[in-house]
Amino acid sequence: MERGPEGLDRDLAQGAASFVLKSPQLSSDRVSKARLRYPEHAQPAFDVLSRVMLQVDDPVHKQLRQLVHSAFTLTAVQGYEASIISMCRDLLAPGLERGELDFMSEFAVPLPLLVISEIVGIPPEDRAQIKDWCDAFSFIALNFYGHIDEDRLGRVNTT
Q1: Residues 77-92: pLDDT tens digits?
Q2: Which domain holds residue 87?
Q3: How far apart (Å, rounded) are the C-alpha atoms in residues 118 and 5?
């Protein structure tokens, strides 16, 4: 048996990792239990959330990874580089002209949406709607573990 840097048995560590990753009791599906706390009208949001790659186990997780794999190979990512640099320059230009920049709202928030929109082919005229949907989805995804009160849930459902 090989010993790790801290003297841990690598075989034991690999076995434990394999158990954790494959155990139904330790599933990635955290949505099923949390959704029970919410009213019927909120269930479509949880239906969507339950299909996100981070929320599913194999074999579905592996199928979803295979769908997006080609978009994130080294060659593909290198192909996006010039476009991403251009987007960065476009986002930074107004702040540079003003001499100040709200980094989060003017750069960090819009950049991922712009990059992903380019990769998957979302036309520029549809990106504002996609941003609204992403914001609503993110609110649900980041808060469903706790509790989302009826007022906030209602506002999300209307976007």
Answers
A1: 999 999 999 999 999 9
A2: 29-157
A3: 43
